[in-house]
C-alpha cells in the first residue's frame, strides 16, 4: 500500500468528479467532517448511551460528546504524524500531496465511528444479535444464506456505520453521504465479512466491518485505495493504515474519560483516579499544580488532559516510526499496546478497574438490562409484522410506524429484516423506550 493512493479524495457517488480546491474554503476532507456534523444520524448520538444512563442531573458523556472528543484527539494524532513525517522527509508534500490532510480525514472518520451503534450501547448490539440466536428471530435462519445469517447473529455497529454512509435509503440521496473514499475506509476497523470475522489473535478479523449487503461497496473502496488482501482470508482485506489512528483516538478517550465520568458520579474517589492517571502524566512532576487546585473535579480534568497528551504523542510516534509495517499490513496490535511497557501496564490496570468498578456499576448494569429488554421487544413486534405476507390489521399498523426511508421494495427476507434493523438500530434511547411503552400499552400517545 502507498500513501498517495490511500489518501484518495474521490467521493462516493461522484467518482467521475475531479476535485478542484483552488478556490474552495474547505478541502475535500473538511467537507466530510462538515457533512457529518450536520447529519441526522450524528445528531441522534446525543441521546444514545455511551456508558452511563441518560439523562441525569450530573453531566456524563453520551455518544455525541464522546464522538466529538474522539475527533479532537484524532485530529491531533493526524497532525502530529504529519509533522513527524515532514521532519523525516522534507519533500513529503510533493510526494504525497494529501498527507497534510491526514488530521482532517481522521477527525471525520472519528465523528462517524459510532454512527451505527444502536441505543443502549453494547447492550443494544447484544439484544439485536440474541433476537436471532435465542429469540423469535431464530426461525428466519432457513430464509437467509449462511453469510447473511452471520450478519444478523452478530450485529456490529461498525459495519452499520458503513451502511448508513453508503446505502441508498428509500427516498434519500442514492449516493448516501457522498464521503471521500479515504474517510470511508478509515472507519472500517475489521475489513472482512461477518462470516470471516471473530478470529482470535487476528487484528484485521477480531470482529467484522461490512454487512453482506455492503460487501461490493467496500470492495469498490478497497480497489480504489489499493488495500491489500488479507493473506489469512482471501475474501477480506488488511486495514487502511489510518484505521490505527482512529482506533487509538477512540481507545484513548474511553479509557481516560470514563474515569472522569466515574469520579463525577462518585463511583471512584479522587484518590483512586489520581493513582490511575498520574503515572501517565509524568508522575510526581505534576504534584505542585495539582496541590494548587482545591476542587477535585479540576484536578481530575488536569490529569485527564495530561494523560491524553502523553498517549497522543506516544501513539503518533509509534505510527510514524513503523510506516513499513502499517503500509505492508504487518503491524499486529493496537497503537496503545505498542507504547512503553510502563504505559501499557498502566492502561491494563485502568481497563481492569473500569471493568470491575465502572462497567459493572449498578446504574450501568440496570440500563443495559432495560435496554436489552426494550430492543428485543421492539424487534419481536416489527420483524414478524414486516415479513408477513398476509398481514393482520395490527401488523399493518405496526408496519405503518416504520418511516418510509427504511422500507424496501425487495422481497427477500434478508432485505426486509435489514430494513427493520435500520429503523430500530437508529433509534435513540429515549425514542426506543417511548415507542416500547406505547406499543405495549404502558403509555398512550398524545395528539398534542
Automatic annotation (TrEMBL):
Pfam families: HD, HD_assoc
InterPro entries in UniProt: dGTP_triP_hydro_central_sf (IPR023293), dGTP_triphosphohydrolase_C (IPR027432), dGTPase (IPR006261), dGTPase-like (IPR050135), HD/PDEase_dom (IPR003607), HD_domain (IPR006674), PHydrolase_assoc_dom (IPR026875)
Domain of life, source organism: Bacteria
Domain HD/PDEase: 59-264
Single annotated GO MF: dGTPase activity
Record keywords: Hydrolase
Tagged with keyword Transcription regulation: no
GO terms of biological process kind: dGTP catabolic process
Name of the protein in its database record: Dehydrogenase
